Amino acid sequence: MLRIGVIGGHLCDDDIAAVARRVGELVAWEGAALVCGGLGGVMEAAAVGARDAGGVVVGILPGDDIRTANPGVTIPITTGLGEARNVLVVKASDAVIAIAGGWGTMSEAALCFKLGVPLIRLKSDLQNLPSPIAETPEEAVEWAMERARERWE
Amino acid sequence: MLRIGVIGGHLCDDDIAAVARRVGELVAWEGAALVCGGLGGVMEAAAVGARDAGGVVVGILPGDDIRTANPGVTIPITTGLGEARNVLVVKASDAVIAIAGGWGTMSEAALCFKLGVPLIRLKSDLQNLPSPIAETPEEAVEWAMERARERWE
Amino acid sequence: MLRIGVIGGHLCDDDIAAVARRVGELVAWEGAALVCGGLGGVMEAAAVGARDAGGVVVGILPGDDIRTANPGVTIPITTGLGEARNVLVVKASDAVIAIAGGWGTMSEAALCFKLGVPLIRLKSDLQNLPSPIAETPEEAVEWAMERARERWE
Amino acid sequence: MLRIGVIGGHLCDDDIAAVARRVGELVAWEGAALVCGGLGGVMEAAAVGARDAGGVVVGILPGDDIRTANPGVTIPITTGLGEARNVLVVKASDAVIAIAGGWGTMSEAALCFKLGVPLIRLKSDLQNLPSPIAETPEEAVEWAMERARERWE
To answer: Are D56 and C75 within 8 A, CB to CB?
Structure first.
């Protein structure tokens, strides 16, 4: 099962949430697992979109309590690792989609380049990053799926 | 989705493998996700048993390469954390079944007591542990499912 | 600089504290760094003993706030990793001395065997472990220093 | 003992190395511990500068072998955590100085903003970061020491 990571802030406005929800839905339709940090905002919208489409949603949580997982998470990975769990979100993904996002997302995006994990951005303010920018959820998920498939060939 | 951890050595004989395989099968039939360290021996037998029964198998791997996952793993979590990933196997489980096992398993079992994660043993040589010992895979899985359900009530 | 780990419970009685304090003092006199989990009980007594003898004390803390370190810690390593930091205490030590201790200590002791880190016990209730038992702090520190020196030769 | 983190690439040219070495020297003269990732390039130059000035140098290593530590490290923390150890370099520092640097450094810098750890840059190509840029090692270390002192007041 391919694994598509979705990264983005734990708070977001309705437009960004709609985009993230659509990304989650498309990832589920592709038959890939959606990997995220398991909390609110972009993570929650993408997770709920994937779950409602019948997908598998892995939430790699900073704490120890599954009740902190957003309602879209089907498999909570309670790590107790705090922010170090961000590294796991990147490492456990075959390709990553960054949606909007602040410094936490920037840290994860930079880690993608460091580790060679394919990254595409959508509605992202992150600047000066050498990654493609998708115009639509469809384009982002198609690109991520292709790179994920290539990675383990 | 409840999460049942299975811990045990990365090498095991055929009798232990048959027991582990049966445990995996029963966990899948119960509709729970099986969580394990993703490598060989007990982990592999349990994972293959669960996957063949249509279950979800989370493999929390020490390294970065999904090709190190045993063939039963359906969701590889490549952590790059080395042995520190053992802590995650315990933390990401609602209850744990220890099958046979050496020092790595003992370390995880002790962590269960430290953290309050319910643990039951099956064909286990680990001594002086204050946890029940199951006679059969059926008994182990039934006990683990009950404790897992109670834990988040 | 050699690194001697001291593991033990975060609560202990006065007799155990006196033993731990003496162990810390001897480690400092040997010119080794004392590595511990940075909190109370055995960790604190050993740390204070080492610091008062002019030694270096590394406290590998579960949280993010240096104010949780006991007063003997001279170098707080705030990890935010929760209990996963226990693995680091073992990994960052060339040899380990276990004093008394409960399940957390047992988990770390088992990890020593798994990883091949030399372990000696002092006033320890931990049973069925294949490690020597020292009668005195002097014997424990001498043994640990010898094993630590051998390890990197 | 205050803890000043130095982050930067594991490869660097002679000019950057001279700057990093001077930073290390100044940190040691201030009586602070220098925290770094323990490998080559900027990490090594800063570590050797601090050690030669009599300072304490904590190297938080990705692997398990102290022989991977650069010769300036006086206290190797062998974590076996891979790139997740980068998070610990940031978390175990009261303030951070970024010297030059690539994507790994960018990931750590972004984490500083996320976590509220004071960051100053020196000879840094990292763009669009809301942190001051120092012209000299003296300015960087003075700023970092001030922020580190303020942080725990």
So the answer is: yes
**Chain C residues lying within 8 Å of A82, measured CB to CB:** 64, 80-82
Alpha-helical runs (H) found in chain B: 14-29, 42-52, 85-91, 103-115, 137-151
Residue D152 has pLDDT above 90, yes or no: no
- Binned at pLDDT 50, 70 and 90, residue D84 comes out as very high
Give the integer Cα–Cα distance in Å for B41 and B47. 10
Q: Do A82 and C84 touch (CB under 8 A)?
A: no
At C102, the amino acid letter reads: G
The contact set of D with C (CB < 8 A) is 1, 3, 33, 56, 58, 60, 64, 66-67, 74-81, 87-88, 91-92, 94, 152
| pLDDT tens column, C83-130 | 999 999 999 999 999 999 899 999 999 999 999 999 999 998 777 788
CA torsion sign, B18 to B20 to B21 to B25?
Answer: positive
Confidence (pLDDT) at D153: 77
A2-50 confidence digits (pLDDT tens): 999 999 999 999 999 999 999 999 999 999 999 999 999 999 999 999 9
CATH code at position B140 = 3.40.50.450
What would the pLDDT profile of B53-76 be if each residue is shown by its tens digit? 999 999 999 999 999 999 999 999
**Cβ contact D46:D33 at 8 Å:** no
Q: Helix axis angle, D42-52 relative to D14-29, nearest 10°?
A: 40
Domain tally, chain D = 1
Classified as helix, coil or strand, B113 is: helix
Range of the domain at C81: 3-151
Structure tokens at C14: 């006065």
- Nearest residue of A to residue B61, measured between CA atoms: A92
- CA angle (B105, B111, B117) in 5-degree steps: 105
Q: Residue with structure tokens 């992150």?
A: A126
Tokens of D25: 């020297």
Query: Which residues does A contribute to its contact with B (CB < 8 Å)?
Result: 1, 3, 33, 56, 58, 60, 64, 66-67, 74-81, 87-88, 91-92, 94, 152
| Percent of chain D residues topping a pLDDT of 90 | 92
Q: Which residues of chain B make contact with C91, given a CB cutoff of 8 A?
A: 83
CA-CA distance, C140 to D77, in Å (whole number)? 23
> Are the beta carbons of A118 and A140 closer than 8 angstroms?
no
